Hints:
Oligomer: single chain
Amino acid sequence: MTAxxxxxxxxxxxxxxxxxxxxxxxxxxxxxxxxxxxxxxxxDPLMVxxxxxxxxxxxxxxxxxxxxxICTTVYLDRMIIVPVLNNDQIAGHxxxxxSLSQFPSEEMMENIFNDHEATRSERVRWLQYWSSLxxxxxxxxxHIGVLAYLIINxxxxxxxxxxxxxxxxxxxxVPNSHIQLTxxxxxxxxxxVDTANNPIFDHIRNGNKxxxxxxxxxxxxxxxxxxxxxxxxxxLKNLAICAVARATREARAGGMLTKLSYQLSxxxxxxxxxxxxxxxxxxATKKALIDFVERVGQFKRKSVSKAIADCMDYVFTNxxxxxxxxxxxxxxxxxxxxxxxxxxxxxxxAFSQYLQSERVExxxxxxxxxxxxxxxxxxxxxxxxxNHFIKVFxxxxxxxxxxxxxxxxxxxx
Length: 413
């Protein structure tokens, strides 16, 4: 074992780091909170780029997360960032690695080098670096993070929870507010794109979220093929779009509302197209697949009839238009009175209350994410007038739209 230290304040920490290093056979580096350099190093983490700078970048990326974070760079090397807690506060981080998710193919290497305009000497150094790293898939990386967390913090975690946390907390180049506003815009303007493709994702169709998470963790997104001969980023985007298209069809087969599945497909594809980083594309794709399987699972748990599912679908896609029970009766071919009874029986609330609730939820998104005036939101969502909107909003939320928006302004970042 190779170890260099700077008089650790906690002698037990050196023992734990050594134990982790011997157990997982990967370099382990301890970086104290706000430290500008490595405080302890176990093993020999050879890297092509500046090591200290890379650690700090990845730790900053992990942010305030109190669970292990698995970070991968644009050059495919991966680190496991494990927070070290002291009285429930982050005292520093262990950086475990580097490793590879898979050894890149010749085409993949060429595309990466093209994207980053690597010189001949840089290409040689990167090839030597990749050849020196062990290959560890995401699922094993999560288990390594769980083991290190148990050793260092004395708390047992589930690997599946760590994986899901990583998929859901990956930083986005496009803010979530942008995605939500795009979806609202699609709903108002009925921008629906059919991007369905051949079905392959059985677990999405069955609403099995746990199985999807494990599948994403144990397989490499980049090993699915190369769909661009010049650009690694373009190739990953093409693969991502295919994956979202397939997930769309599987979600529909699993019972997800048809128009909603098309809108989500369009939304996720636009999100992917706007990205400029291969890691962001990969994580956005994983999050899209989890989004689909979660919604299928939710639908299966609700277990409503096709007629009521069609009504809910109609409400979602026409939320910015006038909607009457007669419209739904015409849609389903059922008698208005019978449809009203069936809707309340299966959904649990009267249709009018359900419609109000859906519009209030959409209004909350607009108040939270846009600068539209309260009167404009009331008009867009087909409330009689601003006073009616305020009354209904307060009934469902316990506060006025203005107060709701004011609370948003003081929320911590």
